[in-house]
Design goal:
Length: 178
């Protein structure tokens, strides 16, 4: 993620220091791994309150978006409680994780400025956020689900914009322009 943002001409500082996080113009919350271990890491670093207090734009990516939800079935994990939705696992009827290119639609907010309906983005996930009032983009894999969420200054994408080619770069640039 760091290199994708730097390719857009923005200096990136990686930090778990609350004062650095709270003073940042933009904050990225990437996520790789499991919800329970990621939340344990956030809790151990005493960052829950810090993240919840951020007033500048925040973008959670993949697991980062899921962590901003109320909870996740993955490890019965309590999330950051920013988005009012609980993350659930795809049924056993489909292959998980979902890996590969998928369409996004119902695009809302400036995060998707100049991004075409039906654009293909890159997904890797076994869990998803169901549709909610905070859904700003949808996708489908067995069911329609939230490909992106937004509440106040908090945004989340289930997909990886940094791996999603031109459209992903537009989404990252749009976030940087918020």
């Amino acid at each position: 993620m760091k290199f994708a943002v730097e390719r857009l001409g923005v200096k990136v500082i990686v930090s778990d220091d609350p004062s650095v996080i709270l003073s940042a113009d933009k904050v990225l919350l990437p996520g790789v791994g499991s919800a329970s271990s990621a939340m344990n890491n956030i809790n151990q670093k005493l960052l829950v309150d810090t993240i919840q207090q951020i007033t500048n734009p925040v973008l959670g990516i993949c697991l980062g978006m899921q962590l901003m939800c109320q909870s996740s079935e993955e490890g019965n994990t309590t999330g950051l409680g920013i988005f009012n939705v609980d993350v659930v696992k795809f049924s056993k009827k489909v292959k998980v994780p979902q890996i590969g290119w998928n369409e996004i639609s119902n695009l809302k907010t400036n995060l998707f400025k100049d991004v075409k309906e039906g654009s293909h983005i890159y997904m890797v996930h076994s869990f998803y956020a169901p549709l909610s009032n905070e859904t700003i983009a949808t996708s489908n894999y067995e069911v329609d689900y939230s490909a992106a969420l937004q509440k106040d200054n908090f945004y989340g994408t289930q997909f990886h914009p940094e791996k999603s080619g031109v459209e992903g770069s537009k989404i990252l640039q749009n976030f940087l322009n918020l």
